[in-house]
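User: Can you write out an input/output pair for a complex, sequences first and structure second?

Assistant: Here is one pair. Inputs:
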Amino acid sequence: MTLTQTATATDPGVIPEAPLLVANDLVKTFGNGVRAVDGVSLQVHRGETVGLVGESGCGKSTTAKMILRLLAPDSGTIRIDDVDLTNLRGKAMRRLRARLQLVPQNPQTSFNPRLSIRSSIDFNLRAHHVARAERGPRVLEALERVGMPAAYAERFPHELSGGQLQRAAIARALVTKPDLIVCDEAVSALDKSIQAQVLNLLFGLQRDLGVAYLFISHDLSVVEHLSDRVVVMYLGRVVEEATSKELWEDPRHPYAEALLSAAPNSGRARIVLSGDPPSPVDPPSGCAFRTRCPVALERCAEARPPLVISEGRHLVACVNQERVSEPVPV
Amino acid sequence: MSTPTNVSSGLSSGSIASGTVVAERPTDAAATDVPTLRLTDLRTTFSSRGLKVAAVRGVDLDLRPGEITVLLGESGSGKSVTAKSVMRLYGGYASITGKAELEGRDLLTMSRSEILAVRGADVALVPQDPTAALDPLRRIGAQMIEVLRLHKAVPNKAAAKARALELLDIVGIPDPPRVFRSFPHELSGGMRQRAVIAIAVSCDPKVLIADEPTTALDVTVQAQILDLFLSLVKRLQSAVLLVTHDVGVAREVGDRVGVMYAGRIVEYGPAAEVLDNPRHPYTRALLDSMPTPEVARGDLRSITGQPPVSGQLPPGCAFHPRCPSCFAPCPDVDPELVDAGPGRLAACHLLTAADVPVTLAHSAPGGDR
C-alpha cells in the first residue's frame, strides 16, 4: 500500500456505507468528580471531515483522547471498521495506532527539541516496526506531501516557524498511512495567513489520500470551512449535529446559535450569553445549557433533552423549537 | 467618502470630529483637538548578543478620548511591543526612541518616580492572560485596594474597599463581596478578566491599553467582555489602544484601526472603512485569508511564505516578498505612509507610483498548498 491508496474514493457528498469510526456513548469521569464527557456518540466515515466544536472544558479534547485511546473511557465503545478498540491492549493496540494519528495544537511542544525533523518523523515509523530501508523514503515522501523541501528534514524544531513546524507535525501523522487523523486545535496557534495555508494543505491531502479528519476547534468559521459534518458539544454532551452547511445556515440549538453569531464572518448579530459556562463538577439539572439559555423553559430543568432528529440528519438536543434569532434566508 | 466614525464626546465637548490624519496633524499644541496620547516615530529595538532587532520601526499614532484605536497584526508584527513600549515595561532591555506624549508630557523621558505615578493611574494596562496578571496568593480585594491606595485615589482603607466593591459591580460581577474575598483560582476566566479590568479602570485612566484582552477567553465570554469594554469606554471617556490579531474584534469595537506589519503601521483609518475597503495589499490579503462560507474548501486565499523575522527584514517594503501586487520599486524602497482617502493612510507604492502596472490584486486562491 502506498500513501495514495490508503482509502476508497471520496467524492464529497457521497458517503460510503459503513463508517470508519464509531464512538458510542462515551463517558469519562475524572478523579476529581469532573464528568468531562457524558454520553458522546459520533461517527466518522472514510475520507470525511467531522468537526467537533465547543468551548474549553466542554470535553472535546477528552473525547479525542478516548478515540485515540490515550485515555480509557469509563463506559462506551469505540470501533474502527470491525475492530473494537475499547479494550484493546499491547501489540494489537499499537498496530491499530498506525491507522489513528494525531496532529496536536502546539507543534513547539509536540516535537522533541533535540531531534531533527527527520528523526522525529522516523521515530513514528520505528514505533510501528517499519523496516529501516523503507523508512528513509517514506519520511521524505511525507515531507513532500506537506510541501516541505527535503532540506528541512535535517533541521531542528527551533529552526522552523510555527506554520512550517505544523506542516512537519502533519507529515509525522501522515507517515504511518493513517485512515483517521485527529486534529486537536491544529491551526489555532497559527497566524491567520498561515492558518489558511495549513487548511488548504489539509484539504488537499484529504482529496489526494482519502484520509478522514476529526477536526477539533473552538473556531466555528474554521470548522465550517473544512468539515462535512459538525458536532457541537456543551459541557460533556453533544447538543447539535448537522452538515456544516445546515449548521451554518440554520443552527437549531440556542448554544450553537450563540457560538455561530460570534464567528467573524457569520453575518449574524452577535448574541451575548449571560454568565459563564457552568462547572462540570456540578452541572445544572436537566439541560446543561439552561442557565445561560435565552429561550429556556421551566421544563428544561426537569430532564436532560435527548439528541433527536430535527430534520434529515440534523440532530438537536433541545426541547424548545423557538429560535433566538431569525434564520438567515438562504 | 464618509466622515470618520468619531464618537468623541464627554470630556472634549464641542470638539471638532475631524479625521485623525497623522501626517497632517496640527502643529499647534493648543489646538482644540489635542489627542490624549500621541506617539511620534516610536521605535523599539532589542539587543541580544550584539544583534539588534528592531521590533517597532517608527509608529505614529494619536489616541483620543472615548475612542478605541485598534492595532491589528499577526504575531511578531510589533503590536504588543508598541503597547508595552508606551508603558516602558521593558526596563533596560529595549532601547526606545521617539515620543509618547500623554497630554504633552513625554512618557519616554520621565523619571522613574514620574512613570511609576503614571502607570496604573493615568495609563493602565489590561493584559491578555488574567491568570498570569493576578497574584495567585492574594485575594482580589487586596489586589484592588493596593492599586487604589498606591495612587492615592481614595482617602482611606474603608473608602478603598467601598470603591473596589463599586468597581466590581461596574464591570458586571454579580456578587462583588464574594469576588472581593476570592482568590483568583476561585474565579472563572471571564470573571478574572473582569476583575483585571476593574483594577485597570480603578483610577479613571486617561489611556487604557488592552493587549489581546479577549484572546484567552472562550468565544461566548469574549462577546461579554467586548460589550463591557465598549460600555466602560463610553462611561470613562478613556482613550483606548486595543491590540489584537482578531479581525472580528477589530471590526466590532474599533473606531480606528492601524494594521501593523513588520514593526510598522502599513494602513490606518476608520475601522469600518479599512476593513471593508483596504488600500494596502497586506490588509487585503489578511482579510482574504479568512474562511467564509463562500470560499470553497481548499481554496482559501492564503498569503504565500512566512512573515519576516524581526532582525532579518527584507529590503524595501517588508511585505514585498509575499505581496501579489509587488512591482518595480517595492524591493528597493520602503514606502512612506501617504494619504489614502479621508482620514486614511497607507504605506504602499501602488498609491503613489505614476504608472502603476498592477492594481490591488487578490492573492491567488489556494495559492500555497
